[in-house]
Amino acid sequence: MNAICIFCGANFNGDPMLKQAIAQLAELMVSRNITLVFGGGKVGVMGLIADEVLQRGGKAIGVIPQFLVDKEVGHTGLTEMHIVETMHQRKQLMSDLSDAIIMLPGGFGTLEEFFEVLTWLQLGLHQKPIGILNVNGFYDLLLKQMDVMVEQQFLKPANRKLVLSAADAIELVNLMDNFKPVTDEVWFRDRNLI
């Protein structure tokens, strides 16, 4: 992996375990010469991960819509900044610039970004590993909901396995290094999962 796209929050809740996980992920990325691709903000978890990567001498590429630059939330110290017009262009370019995607804690925007690129993987539009850094159990209930979707036959087990998760950045990146996507596209032909 040469570049990892990080989807994360524009807020930070002050959790020291999250701050430690961000530092560990940044250290790992810089030690492996992996570029950070992210939403370009200086605020919240976005700003923290960018600052941690840059402080260690790594590269950070931001992608941000003009309206957020106008609100003065763009990070001004990045290796590279791409300014786009729309949120969709932002997500598309972030994906295009990366070899893998990791979701850190965040809100609705973070989830929306994650689930769209996950759907792209399920549809075979890319082959990138997608992981959740599940710091302090933040995403436990979301992961459980994915299991419920399988149990209730709205999600194929093979497609559930597309979501890698770990509480530790090193473990997650190692899982991603070994990722071989196997999607179940049977639903294109057979609509029912029964």
Produce a short descriptive summary:
The chain is α/β, with parallel strands linked by helices. The chain has helices at residues 16-31, 44-55, 66-70, 87-96, 108-122, 140-151, 157-160, 169-177; strands spanning 3-7, 35-38, 60-65, 80-84, 100-103, 130-133, 163-166. The chain has a 7-stranded parallel β-sheet with strand order 4-3-2-1-5-6-7.
Write the layout of secondary structure elements.
Blueprint: E1 3-7, H1 16-31, E2 35-38, H2 44-55, E3 60-65, H3 66-70, E4 80-84, H4 87-96, E5 100-103, H5 108-122, E6 130-133, H6 140-151, H7 157-160, E7 163-166, H8 169-177
Helix pairs in contact: 1-2
For this entry, give a set of tags.
alpha/beta; seven-stranded parallel β-sheet; 194 residues; 8 helices
- The number of helical segments is 8
Main sheet attributes: strand count, strand direction, barrel closure: 7 strands, parallel
Q: Averaged pLDDT, please?
A: 93
Beta-strand content: 15-25%
Q: Sketch the topology as an H/E string, one letter per element.
A: EHEHEHEHEHEHHEH
Helix content: 40-55%
Q: Strand pairing plus helix content: what structural class?
A: alpha/beta
Strands, total number: 7
Low-confidence parts: none
Shape: globular
The neighbouring-strand order within the major sheet is 4-3-2-1-5-6-7
Distance between the termini: 37 Å
What integer value in Å does the Rg equal?
17 Å
